[in-house]
């Protein structure tokens, strides 16, 4: 007895639509319905691919927008910190100027009072001597 050999012609083949068919029937069986289904499924596959690409592009755009918003937020925070540092420096300068003004005013006041006291004392002494010598 001769053993039957099974060739590739007896194994089912898978076409692009995902359905399996026998190699002997292919897509010519019936009234051509097999060919029509494969073309419609390939167009649905391409539309699915377009939808996937659009979704990926939208997600990437959203991620880029979020990153840009975060960068702008960080830049705003840095500007606010710089403004606060400048304000603190201005306050320090104002305090130093106030201290210098207070010191100058106190020194001038002390010197003026001392000079006025000396002048008053000298004038009183001169008037006293004049009064004693002439009267």
Secondary structure: elements and pairs:
Elements: E1 12-14, E2 20-22, H1 33-134
Antiparallel strand pairs: 1-2
Helix and strand element order:
EEH
Spatial ordering of strands, largest sheet: 1-2
Shape: rod-shaped
Low-confidence stretches: 19-37
Helix content: over 70%
Query: How much strand content do the residues show?
Result: under 5%
Alpha carbon gyration radius:
52 Å
Structural class, by secondary structure, is mainly alpha
What is the number of strand segments? 2
Q: State the helix count.
A: 1
| Overall pLDDT | 79
Q: How many strands, what sense, and barrel or not for the largest sheet?
A: 2 strands, antiparallel
Distance between the termini: 174 Å
Briefly summarize what is shown.
The protein is mainly alpha-helical. It has one helix and two strands. It has one helix at 33-134, and strands at residues 12-14, 20-22.
């Amino acid at each position: 007895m001769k053993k039957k050999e099974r060739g590739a012609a007896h194994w089912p083949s898978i076409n692009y639509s995902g359905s399996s068919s026998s190699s002997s029937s292919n897509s010519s069986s019936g009234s051509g319905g097999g060919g029509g289904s494969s073309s419609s499924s390939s167009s649905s596959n391409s539309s699915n691919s377009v939808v996937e690409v659009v979704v990926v592009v939208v997600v990437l755009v959203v991620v880029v927008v979020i990153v840009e918003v975060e960068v702008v937020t960080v830049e705003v925070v840095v500007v606010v910190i710089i403004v606060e540092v400048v304000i603190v420096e201005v306050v320090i300068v104002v305090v130093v100027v106030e201290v210098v003004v207070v010191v100058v005013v106190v020194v001038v006041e002390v010197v003026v009072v001392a000079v006025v006291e000396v002048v008053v004392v000298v004038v009183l002494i001169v008037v006293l001597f004049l009064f004693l010598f002439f009267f």
